[in-house]
Specification:
globular, BCAA_transport_permease, membrane, cell membrane
């Protein structure tokens, strides 16, 4: 069975990179605005469907990815304005219920427009790299590289720009940030736009790797929340490591134990982390704001 290990590790890294890409946007919105945005999975779904529709209309795949991502950014900003901003001073439970309601509405809207049958988008990067002990599609290598590039881009924005300084200030103490003259509305707009960008970009790119259907965002966003707990909420590097770790664990459980226990293993890890290290494997203990 050990001869399968290199291939299982590669499969786990590939799966984990998709979880990490989705979790990046989710952890940013949750870490800064404290919004449990379950509708993030639908932003991912809409990015995939928009790309599918544009490619079907004859648009080049990469141009379709750009257009679809812009569409999802606009939808994400509208989602915040319509659903979350009116509940800005409400409880976390109200925000969670609103997010679930928005998620269902977006799924039903997609079903009305595109139907419930799975769709596929041709891969823009064909071919497979074959090495001793494992093989990996060139497109999957691109997805892993894109995930790392997305992390690097968000890190640069947060740590090397005035906008990032403002976002980090709001994340640490919203009241103090406002007293220092930081416009909370602008920070909120930018945070949701970046989160939607990451969700839409993930869906647009992964539409060439996974079937596209209205409920395709449910499982990834649930796994992304697990990644948040594993990596530590608001921790970008933790989102990457947590996503990769989760992907490897899932593939190992499916490959060496049983594919039926794949999700059981995932949520068992979640429970163990919550019991033993609630701040996440890579997070720090913070005082409640």
């Amino acid at each position: 069975m050990l001869d399968m290990l290199p291939q299982q590790l590669v499969n786990g890294l590939t799966l984990g990179s998709t979880y990490a890409l989705i979790a990046l946007g989710l952890t940013l919105v949750f870490g800064v605005l404290l919004i449990p945005n379950f509708a993030h999975g639908e932003l991912y779904m809409l990015g995939a469907f928009s790309t599918y529709a544009l490619v079907g209309a004859g648009v080049n795949f990469w141009l379709a990815v750009v257009i679809a991502t812009v569409i999802v950014i606009a939808l994400g900003i509208v989602l915040d304005r319509v659903v979350f901003q009116p509940l800005d001073h409400s409880s976390s439970l109200s925000l969670m219920i609103a997010a679930l309601a928005a998620s269902i509405i977006l799924q039903q809207t997609a079903t009305i427009i595109w139907g419930s049958e799975p769709r596929t988008t041709p891969s823009p990067i064909p071919g497979v790299l074959r090495m001793a002990g494992f093989s990996i599609a060139y497109f999957q290598i691109f997805v892993i590289a894109l995930t790392l590039a997305a992390w690097g881009g968000v890190w640069l924005v947060l740590n090397r720009s005035r906008l990032g300084l403002a976002i980090r200030a709001v994340a640490q103490n919203k009241g103090a940030a406002q007293l220092m003259g930081i416009e909370l509305r602008d920070v909120r707009l930018a945070t949701f736009a970046i989160g939607a960008l990451l969700g839409g970009l993930g869906g647009a790119i992964l539409s060439a790797n996974f079937p596209v259907y209205p409920t395709m965002g449910i499982n990834p966003v649930l796994k992304a929340f697990v990644v948040l707990v594993l990596g530590g909420i608001g921790n970008l590097w933790g989102a990457i490591l947590g996503g990769l770790l989760l992907g490897i664990v899932e593939v190992m459980v499916a490959g060496y134990i049983s594919s039926q226990l794949q999700d059981v293993g995932t949520f068992l890890i979640l429970v163990l982390v919550l019991l033993l290290r609630p701040q996440g494997l890579f997070g720090r203990v913070v005082l409640e704001r």
